[in-house]
Amino acid sequence: MKAFYLTTAIDYANGAPHLGHAYEKVLSDVIARWRRLRGERVFFLTGLDEHGQKVQQSANKEGVEAQAFCDRVAEQFRSLCSKLLITNDDYIRTTEARHQEVVTGILQTLFDRGEIYKAEYKGFYSTRAEQFLQEKDKVDGRWPEIFGDVTEVTESNYFFRLSRYQSWLAQYVESHPDFIFPKYRAKQVLEFLKDPINDLCISRPKERLSWGIELPFDKNYVTYVWFDALINYISAVGYGTERFADYWPADFHVIGKDILVPAHSVYWPIMLQAIGVPMPKTLLVHGWWLMSGEKMSKSTGLTVDPLEVVEQAGPDAFRYFLMREMNVGQDSDFSREIFLQRYNNELGNDLGNLVSRLQNMVTRYCDGRLPASTLEDAPEGELKALWKTLCPAILSDFDNLQFHTGLEKCFQFIRAINRYVEVRAPWKLAKSEDTGDRQRLEASMAVISEGLRLVSTLLTPVMPNISSTTLQLLGALTPTDLSGLTWGSSLAGKTVGEKVILFPRMDA
Ligand code: MSP
Question: Which of 147, 209, 311, 448 is most exposed, with minimal Cβ within 10 Å?
Fold first, then answer.
C-alpha cells in the first residue's frame, strides 16, 4: 500500500534555524503523528537545501569549505528536529549522492528531449534572491529591498521551457481545487499565470557560482538552486526505482507562503509534468510567524531561537503553543507574553494542576488505586455527554488541519473536568461517613481519570511526551491508534504513578 507521504520545505543551509523552520517541522510532525494514529503508514521527509550562492557566501565569510559548513548546519538542524520530537523517517541533504544522481539524470533527460536549451541572456540579476529579474519586478521604478544588490549581466545560460506548459498548468490548478490548501491561495497562482511566463534559467556559470550540481551536458555550469532543491521530494523516495510507487504522489508538501509562487506552484508542477511524473496531491501552505507584525527572518534580524524556548518550557509546551496559536494558512505574531499566558494558564493551571490534583486525591483517598465508578449522576452524565459531542468535532478539526480549534476544544473539555472537580469537591466527600458520599468520591476519581485519559489520547500528536506521562500516571498505555476514544475503558484497579509537575510555572 502506498504510504501517506508528507514533506517539509528543505531549509537553506546558510544560517541557524529559527522559529519559522521549527513551526513547519512541528506542523508536519503533528500531521504525521495524527495520520499514524489514524492507522496510516506514513513517510515523513525533511531535509536541507545546501547549494547556491548564499551558502557559498556564508561559508566564505567563515573561511571554511562549503561542504564543511553545510555539515555543521545539518547537525544544527537535525538536532533541532530531535529536540522538537520530530518523527521524520528520512532526512535528505542536497549534497548527497542519491540526490545529485537524480538531479543529473533529470537534467540530461530534459536536455535530450529539447526541454532545456541554451541562449544568450542580457538582464538584471539579484544575488540575494539568486534569480534574474524583469522590469515588472520593480516597484515604483526601483528594485525592492528584498533583491539586495541588482547588477546587469550578459551571459549564455540554459533555459527550461516553462512557457510551453503555462496553459496546461492554469487549467490544472483550476480543475483541482485540492491542489492548494488553503484554497484561497490558488488565486495567487492563477493571477501569476495571467501574464505570459518566461522560460526558467536553470544554469549558473561556474565562474560566478561553483557550489552546485554540475550540468551533465556542460561542465562550465552548475544548476540553479531551486531546480536542484525541488527534486529532493522525489530523489529521497527512490525516483527511477520500483520503490518510488510506494510513496509518490506526495500527499502534502508543507511549505510557507513565500515559496508557493512561483517555486512550488509553477516550477515544480511543470518540472514533474515534463518528466511525466504525476502531480503531488496538495501543497499545504502555512503563513508566517511575525514579530511585532514583521516577518521573522534572518535578514530582518527578528528571530526567536526555538531552542531557547524549548530549553525553558520543554518541547511539548512549545509544540502546543505553535499549534494552538496559529490558524494554518494565516500569519501569527510570536510574543513572550502570549506564550507565557498560554503556558501558565492553559498548560499549567488547566491541565498540569488537574493531573497533579488527581494524583494527590487518589493517593490520599483511595490508597493510590483508581476506583471503579459505580454511580452516574447528573455531573458525571454531563461530562460524558460533553465528550460525546466534542470528540467527533475534534477528530474532524484535526482531519481538516484545524489544529487550533481542535486544541481549543480539548481544553474546553479539560476546563469542564476542572469544573466537575469543583462541583463534586472530593475533599469534602472524603470527610463524610456517608456510604453514598464514598460512592460519589470513587465515581469522581474514576470520571476525572477517564476524562484525562481520553483527552490525553487526542493530545498525543501535539504533546507526545506530556500525554505519555499523563497516561502512564493513570496506568494507561501510550495510544498507537484511536480505538480507545469511547468513554468507559476502565482504569479501575490501576495504581497511579508518582507525583509529577508537568508544567512548572514560568515567570515573565
Ligand atoms: N530552501 C528553500 C526551500 C526549498 S524547498 C524545495 C527555503 N528555505 S528557507 O530556509 O528559507 O525556508 C524554509 C521554510 O521555512 C519555508 O517553507 C519558509 O516558508 C519557512 N519559513 C521561513 N520563515 C518563516 C516564518 N517567519 N514563519 C513561518 N515559516 C517561514 O525557502
Answer: 311
Q: What is the CA radius of gyration of the chain?
A: 27
Per-residue pLDDT at 259 exceeds 90: yes
Spatial CB neighbours of 161, under 8 Å, sequence gap ≥ 6: 114, 115, 116, 117, 199, 274
Query: CA 374 → CA 59, 176, 422, distances in Å?
Result: 68, 54, 20
Q: Is the dihedral of CA 406, 412, 413, 414 positive or negative?
A: positive
**Distance spanning both ends of the chain, measured CA to CA:** 50
Give the separation between CA 129 and CA 149, rounded to whole angstroms.
10
- Axis-axis angle for helices 378-399, 435-459 (nearest 10): 0
Q: Is the CB of 298 under 6 A from ligand 1?
A: no
Vertex 83, ends 77 and 88: CA angle to 5°? 65
Query: pTM for this structure?
Result: 0.96
The C-alpha cell at 209 is: 557560482
- 462-501 confidence digits (pLDDT tens): 999 999 999 999 999 999 999 999 999 779 999 999 999 9
Residue 260 in contact with residue 185, Cβ under 8 Å? yes
Torsion of CA 343, 348, 350, 352, to 10 degrees: 130
Mean pLDDT of 52-75: 96
CATH numbers and ranges of domains, the chain: 335-473 (1.10.730.10)
Q: Beta-carbon neighbour count of residue 244 at 10 Å? A: 13
How far is 336 from 322, CA to CA, in rounded Å?
Answer: 12
DSSP 289-328: EEETTEE-BTTTTB---HHHHHHHH-HHHHHHHHHHH--T
Going by DSSP bridges, is the β-strand pair 289-291/294-295 parallel, antiparallel, or unpaired?
Answer: antiparallel
Query: Which residues are bridge partners to 398 per DSSP?
Result: none
Q: Tell which one of 8, 11, 291, 298 to mutate to probe ligand 1, the residue whose CB is within 8 A of the most ligand atoms.
A: 11
Q: Is the CB of 297 under 6 A from ligand 1?
A: yes
With beta carbons less than 8 A apart as the criterion, state whether 13 and 57 touch. Answer: no
Say whether pLDDT at 304 is over 90: no
Measured from the CA of 256, which atom of ligand 1 is nearest?
A: 19
* Cell numbers found for residue 465: 511526551
Q: Are strands 4-8 and 42-49 parallel, antiparallel or unpaired?
A: parallel
pLDDT digit string (tens) for 194-204? Answer: 999 999 999 99
Quote the ligand 1 centre to 418 CA distance (angstroms).
Answer: 40
Q: CB-based burial of residue 501 (10 Å sphere; 0-12 exposed, 13-18 middle, 19+ buried)?
A: exposed
Q: Write out pLDDT tens, residues 244-257.
A: 999 999 999 999 99
